[in-house]
Amino acid sequence: MISASVxxxxxxxxxxxxxxxxxxxxxxxxxxxxxLLVFTGVISAEEGVAGFSNKATITVAFMFILSxxxxxxxxxxxxxxxxxxKFKNNINVGLILMMILIAIISAFINNTPVVAMFxxxxxxxxxxxxxxxxxxxxxxxxxxIFGGMCTLIGTSTNILVSGIxxxxxLASIGMFEMSKIGIILxxxxxxxxxxxxxxxxxxxxxxxxxxxxxxxxxxxTQIQILENSSIIGQPIMETDLxxxxxxxxxxxxxxxxxxxxxxxxxxxxxxxxIKLRCDVExxxxxKDEVKIVVKDxxxxxxxxxxxxxxxxxxxxxxxxxxxxxxNLKQVDFxxxxxxIPLAIKHRDEIVNQDLYEVDIKAGDVILAEVKSHYLEQFxxxxxxxxxxxxxxxxxxxxxxxxxNFWIVLGLLFLMVTSASLGWIDIMIGAISCxxxxxxxxxxxxxxxxxxxxxxxxxxxxxxxxLGTAMTNTGxxxxxxxxxxxxxxxxxxxxxxxxxxxxxxxxxxxxSNNASAALMAPIAIAVASSMGLDALPFLITIMIAxxxxxxxxxxxxxxxxxxxxxxxxxKDFFKVGVxxxxxxxxxxxxxxxxxYF
Length: 596
Hints:
single chain, alpha+beta, Alpha-Beta Plaits, 9-stranded antiparallel sheet, 24 helices, 57% helix, 10% strand, elongated
């Protein structure tokens, strides 16, 4: 009969293959592994599902909600606008500031949604600064990893390892236990990417997703300068709203005077109406400027974008639309469809007249602002027999809600402080914060459920069964003894180094959470056999499971930027192998220095 230890090793081997090949989604792979361990009798059914009630799993789920609440406030858009100005002035300084900003944010909220939100932002920054986004997206991912290593809540891996420690009867890991090493690695990582890594990054988006598509829809729109605008008295080509976005100014109207193709030194006055030719992405970027830079009081089309919860939509006129051969004024577009027109694309031509005077034809595209709750009605129009238009695209406009931002930030600060001082358990703190957000209707219950990354939750819950299996079969002790026998004579630095290298290589092949779940029990067993505190060994696992830079599959944020940056597998290896080696060497010496 095959022993339980051998069965566990076979299942672990299968897990590595499943996680490395990703033929099956990682969360489903974790469920399959858990079921195999239960069916083979290695763990009980109760042990198999125990991960769903584990403090680590619950904490991670609620941290996703807190992260979404902070992102929902629109605060990152404000930071992005400030950052874009740094890129415009100095690309190198902008890159460093971007990495530091991402790292700080990722230290306190889950880095996965942060990277998801910043990918289109970074691409837009690259467009404005005329820098290939492939030079910026890997630094974005790596910076989020640097920040996640600095606190307990920075990444789900840290919370998972702390949960395993508690399950084994050890004390939970403190909020800032790893910060001493994490901050050093953060500084080293930013310096490496700024001076070495950026030279190894490829340039391959210049003629693909970086360059504007030849078929990009071009619109004519207009902005009006209102009272107290900061651009009053500035030469037209020196204004941030025009210069940063490389928009083609075709006309300025001042009262009854019309100036075609104004010179770059033409000075703007209050009330000037500027007619622009640009594509939809630039109009959306212009919208961001208007929404965020409050001092720039201007109006685009008929909108100043001051309403909250609105979206920009592109509406293509159908062949049987009742709008055909009429203009927007005749159909009472604003009142009838509750939408504010911003620009119009007239089939294969770009119209150069007032929006409300354009005769609408089939195939025309209208760019408009509409309140988000009315989008469902727009989608309902598409099902009508004589549908007026089809919804070509939609883009939610996120307003910066200062009140909600400070409430969420205050709750996060209170939770982190209370957990750090031992006043409250981090899990209870996270649940309490979410309950307050729901109670004061800062987040709706539907939004709360939707903000949880259930794939990560299921992965964590089921991956914990691997650690349980290793403990039940004694594999953790056997592997721990093996490590000590081969490395123990060389001292604790060699043991730490061996644990880090094993975890790091595993993480490059499989999920970081899965490798942490596998290696944490071994780290505890090694510490027990050596008669030492387990904390240094667990921190080693936490860092090694996060500091994965050589492949796009080891860490979720690497996978996210992989396609967006048009990268190849070898790009990560070229940039990341040096960083992996540096972090390995530093951690091998810093852990013993700080914790023994």
